[in-house]
């Protein structure tokens, strides 16, 4: 070997710099640079770029996720058990306000439920609430209740600008926001029942007076006639046959 | 690709924003997401006086965003064919331009 024979290379290129590992950036030796350039990693390029190929659909997500099934069952229960379900858009609000709103609604027996669109959409598409599907985009909450206290709910929501009422399903009837406001303005069930009964009872109460109207008019005319006759007796007796004929013709 | 939640908008030159949409229509997604984004804490914190109102209709009208600026200018964006990111960047660029103008005016005057 050359080194053992006492031969040293003419230029000790390595010894010019102080150390191999420095704190500042040190340029690589030129031979090393060439080596690195030659052995650089080139990723394999497919013959046809992937964006020119028709989009491939991955295997459909398995719905056997137990948590998703549980959430779906909960949503189905909610739709079955509650008479009033209101859908609102939820824009982020501070936690204290959210707690207050939940508290006020709970006083009126209205529960606040946060829902995920990806869970509620398949449930709705298979049930009879298909028309509620377009509502479920962006973040939503459901306000559910066994009673239909629309007026109180609207009052609470008016004080919360970050929750916007989109629509509701009350007693299996889908209503828009305007529909909910009209529903809130309606009188209560007892009051409207009383009004209907009163309206229906009005006509029969008038039947007896209607039937008695004709004969009552006739008796009034005859009374008047008798008075006139008596007044006429004291005056002229020849006025008798003419009124007698007119009453006979009637 | 920009995420709609990452875009920052400074609402100082804005007086009020009115968002009108019809939730039973199918072209309202971007408008609703826009409403959600401008209601976030960070953007609301830039201007507490800015009122954001949502007008929910059921008359089949197209989704609309009506922005009133403090200097009287109005910006109307029809969201039926716009994406959320486009609407946010448009609003953001106009707000930035107005703020720059105000800063320059403030520097010139005193």
Describe the secondary structure blueprint for this structure.
The complex is a heterodimer of chains A (250) and B (110).
Chain A: H1 30-38, H2 66-81, E1 84-90, H3 95-107, E2 110-115, H4 117-126, E3 140-145, H5 150-158, E4 163-170, E5 173-176, H6 177-185, H7 189-234, H8 241-249
Antiparallel strand pairs in A: 1-3, 1-4, 2-3, 4-5
Chain B: E1 14-21, H1 29-38, H2 41-46, E2 51-56, E3 64-69, E4 74-78, H3 84-108
Helix pairs in contact in B: 1-3
Describe the structure concisely for a colleague:
The complex is a heterodimer of chains A (250) and B (110). Chain A has 250 residues and is of the alpha+beta class.
Work out the helix count of chain B.
Answer: 3
What is the spatial order of strands in the main beta sheet of chain A? 2-3-1-4-5
Which parts of chain A are unreliable, with pLDDT below 50 for 5 consecutive residues or more?
Answer: 239-250
Structural class of chain A: alpha+beta
Radius of gyration of chain A: 47 Å
Please state the average pLDDT score of chain A: 83
Q: Which parts of chain B are unreliable, with pLDDT below 50 for 5 consecutive residues or more?
A: none
From the N-terminal CA to the C-terminal CA of chain B, the straight-line distance is: 43 Å
Helix percent band of chain A: 40-55%
What is the top-level CATH class of chain B? Answer: Alpha Beta
Widest sheet of chain B: strand order?
A: 2-1-3-4
* Percent helix of chain B: 25-40%
């Amino acid at each position: 070997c050359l080194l053992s024979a006492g031969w040293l290379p003419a230029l000790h290129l390595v010894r010019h710099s102080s150390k191999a590992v420095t704190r500042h950036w040190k340029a690589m030796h030129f031979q090393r640079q060439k080596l690195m350039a030659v052995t650089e990693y080139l990723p394999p390029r497919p013959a046809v770029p992937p964006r020119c190929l028709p989009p491939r659909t991955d295997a459909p997500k398995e719905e056997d996720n137990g948590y998703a099934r549980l959430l779906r069952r909960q949503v189905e229960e909610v739709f079955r058990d509650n008479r009033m379900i209101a859908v609102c858009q939820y824009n982020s609000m501070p936690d204290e306000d959210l707690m207050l709103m939940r508290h006020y609604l709970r006083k009126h027996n209205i529960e606040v439920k946060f829902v995920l669109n990806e869970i509620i959409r398949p449930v709705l598409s298979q049930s009879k609430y298909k028309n509620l599907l377009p509502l479920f985009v962006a973040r939503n909450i459901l306000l559910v209740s066994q009673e239909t206290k629309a007026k109180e709910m609207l009052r609470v929501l008016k004080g919360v600008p970050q929750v916007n009422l989109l629509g509701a399903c009350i007693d299996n009837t889908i209503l828009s926001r305007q529909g909910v406001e009209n529903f809130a303005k309606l009188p209560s069930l007892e009051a409207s029942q009383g009004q209907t009964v009163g309206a229906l009872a009005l006509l029969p109460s008038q039947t007896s007076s209607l039937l008695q109207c004709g004969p009552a008019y006739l008796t009034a005319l005859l009374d008047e006639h008798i008075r006139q006759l008596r007044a006429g007796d004291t005056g002229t007796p020849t006025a008798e046959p003419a009124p007698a004929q007119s009453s006979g013709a009637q | 690709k920009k995420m709609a939640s990452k875009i920052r908008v400074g609402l100082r030159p804005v007086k009020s924003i009115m968002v009108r949409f019809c939730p039973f229509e199918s072209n309202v997604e971007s408008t609703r997401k826009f409403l959600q984004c401008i209601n976030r804490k960070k953007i609301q914190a830039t201007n507490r006086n800015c009122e954001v109102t949502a007008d929910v209709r059921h008359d089949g009208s197209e989704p609309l965003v009506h922005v009133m600026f403090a200097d009287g200018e109005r910006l109307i964006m029809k969201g039926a064919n716009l994406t959320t990111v486009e609407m946010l960047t448009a609003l953001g660029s106009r707000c930035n331009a107005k703020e720059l103008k105000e800063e320059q005016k403030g520097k010139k005057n005193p």
